[in-house]
Amino acid sequence: MRQSLTGDIHLNTFPAAPSLTAFFGGTFDPIHYGHLQPVTALAKLVGLTQVVLMPNNVPPHRQQPGASARQRLHMAELAVAGNALFTVDDRELQRQTPSYTIETLEALRAEKGHDAPLGFIIGQDSLLTLHHWQRWQDLLSVCHLLVCARPGYRSTLETPELQRWLDNHLTHSPDDLHQQPHGRIFLADTPLVTISATEIRQRRRQGLDCHDLLPPAVIHYIDEHDLYR
């Protein structure tokens, strides 16, 4: 809103730019504070208003999660219920065949259009092994990479060539993520939360308390369905 020299009030009519939407995939077996706390901190750092959780499909030839696809989906929904930052997308769980991250991101890009800023959230551990992903070189042609810090991992990539690739796409400005639809890498100084789903499953098998590791609604669901025993 602005006021003219004559005292009249006028509403600003600047066109609204598309907001940055970020997607965060994971097995979420179960979802826990090690997932949610760093991503929440990342959202504050870069001005995210929407993070979409995407539970991963696990192909039959790989070791299966302790919880079923439906149970992992329900736990993700319970974990973020009432939190306006998060929504949950189950498209990966609908696939009957193995899928690659790049294919999912290309489908999302087609849905959102060419100009919408899209981000894909990964951990520092994933950044270090990104060059082993299917068509990893194409990722930045459809999204930004938003990287959460992870304890115990180095900060440089494996080879000088990979490090140059990172340096060429690196940005320290959240504005770049909102003003460009894709192509940038943002290394976020997020909290180092040393929680893992493996640890939670082990504690459950040992009958140990996990209330400090994951949301109460998820704990209740795990108890109700007697998971990870």
From TrEMBL:
It comes from Samsonia erythrinae. Pfam families: CTP_transf_like. GO terms for biological process: NAD+ biosynthetic process. Keywords: ATP-binding, NAD, Nucleotide-binding, Nucleotidyltransferase, Pyridine nucleotide biosynthesis, Transferase. This is Probable nicotinate-nucleotide adenylyltransferase. The lineage of its organism: Bacteria, Pseudomonadati, Pseudomonadota, Gammaproteobacteria, Enterobacterales. InterPro entries: Cyt_trans-like, NadD/NMNAT, Rossmann-like_a/b/a_fold. It comes from the Bacteria. Pathway: Cofactor biosynthesis; NAD(+) biosynthesis; deamido-NAD(+) from nicotinate D-ribonucleotide: step 1/1. One of its GO terms (molecular function) is ATP binding. Residues 23-203 form the Cytidyltransferase-like domain. Its EC number is 2.7.7.18. Belongs to the NadD family. Catalyzes the reversible adenylation of nicotinate mononucleotide (NaMN) to nicotinic acid adenine dinucleotide (NaAD). It is an enzyme of class 2 (transferase). It catalyses: nicotinate beta-D-ribonucleotide + ATP + H(+) = deamido-NAD(+) + diphosphate.
